[in-house]
Amino acid sequence: MPPRKGPSPKAHGAVPTGFSVRRDLPVGRHALLEAFPGLDRLKTAERHEPDAQQREHLHHETFVEIVSDDVWMYVAPHEIPADARAQWKPVLGRGQDCIVVGEGHLRESPDLILFLDIFHELCHIRQRHAGLELWDRRYSYVTRPTEVEAYKFVVDEARLLGVKDAVLRDYLKVEWIDEKEFRQLLDTMGVSAG
């Protein structure tokens, strides 16, 4: 998945009590729970991975790499996908589960967006553990089963927090899909087109 750019200033909203972000961490690789302390104790984490042992493994064996690039978040591939865009130079996981986070995103984006993004990417880590192909080019971005599942999870969590469709529309509008695909994604997620 190509990284998203430019944190959205509109996407404000409540996050679960106990969700926090270490916005002062330096560029480099850090433990997931160093960057997002307490994430493992959220009800969202339990819904995301109901098995306590697997949840603990996920949260303690996943890293966050903060980069100075203008990106939001993405799962670091173990190797560059064969048909990746030429201008995309992803950080590689090097055998570790790693979520890449743009420094600007970490420091400036609203808590809600960071909450949705980290759980979206954790969905992808779980999918990779299950043997799924995260960059399966047989599908368009908005029909790729791994993306649909990850977006569905975070949209459902946002709704539990009372997040309105206008905010979800803004969150789902990513720069690498066209208007038709955007409307398809909204429809798949059950988010009104406004």
Care to describe what's here?
It is a single chain. This protein is α+β, with helices and mostly antiparallel strands and 194 residues long. The chain has one domain. It is built from eight helices and four strands. The longest helix has 19 residues, at 111-129. Mean pLDDT is 87; it is low at 1-11.
Structural domain tally: 1
Total of DSSP H or I helical runs spanning 4+ residues: 8
- Beta-strand percentage? 5-15%
Unreliable residue stretches: 1-11
Q: What summary fits the major beta sheet?
A: 4 strands, mixed
Q: Compute the number of strand runs.
A: 4
The percent range for helix content is: 40-55%
Task: Please provide a brief summary of the model.
The protein is 41% helix and 10% strand.
Features:
about 190 residues; alpha+beta; disordered N terminus
Topology:
Blueprint: E1 28-31, H1 32-35, H2 43-48, H3 52-61, E2 62-67, E3 73-75, E4 97-102, H4 103-108, H5 111-129, H6 145-160, H7 165-172, H8 179-189
Parallel strand pairs: 2-4
Antiparallel strand pairs: 1-2, 3-4
